[in-house]
């Protein structure tokens, strides 16, 4: 009996040790490597951008750096093309996507999302010649209009779903797409409201911003499916930075101040 009891205790101790050592595959890999590898597509103002000196800056970048610092690991940026960002995550080249990604059902079939960390929506940058003639997305739902946006984004989805009669031109980057309007080759550019607001302020006279979003789009951090420990970590981290004031300080820096524009222009 004593031997059986001793064996049972030893087995329980082994099980306890094994459960306390593991914190989920993503957190374990972060701890083991000493790195938090974060995927994004630089060029989405003010979330992630490449500065004049070659470093990455932006709202998402600052949030990621705080996350890594609180984890006690190195922040490693992984800049990748938007249309390949989910495959990059799923092949293990980064631990999470922190890239202003809208949470939607189609993406959620491939990745898990943490709770939304910000909510935005699609707005319209309009050719100045259409000011007063086009006052909402409904007015653009006509075959005589050409609308530009970035490939693989919720802007493209919104156009196909809500403005299907218009001609759609998609581009690899938002910078190329919005130039179509500024250069008079497209009637409108549809994209996330924060980017459009900044672009409009920088290009007064070249575009008109219909700034009220016509879609509801929560943005969230994405990870590979099936790791509830990492989701728990991300949700708790978000509550922490919103509670201690860190989130508000970073938000104000990038959304309520334009001093950073000199770093990317």
From TrEMBL:
Domain Solute-binding protein family 3/N-terminal: 35-258
Family per record: Belongs to the bacterial solute-binding protein 3 family.
Domain Ionotropic glutamate receptor C-terminal: 35-257
Keyword Signal: yes
Keywords: Signal
Protein name: Amino acid ABC transporter substrate-binding protein
GO molecular-function terms, A-Z: ligand-gated monoatomic ion channel activity
Keyword Signal: yes
PANTHER family, per the entry: GLUTAMINE-BINDING PERIPLASMIC PROTEIN, MEMBRANE-BOUND LYTIC MUREIN TRANSGLYCOSYLASE F
One Gene Ontology cellular component annotation held by this UniProt entry: membrane
Cleaved signal peptide residues: 1-23
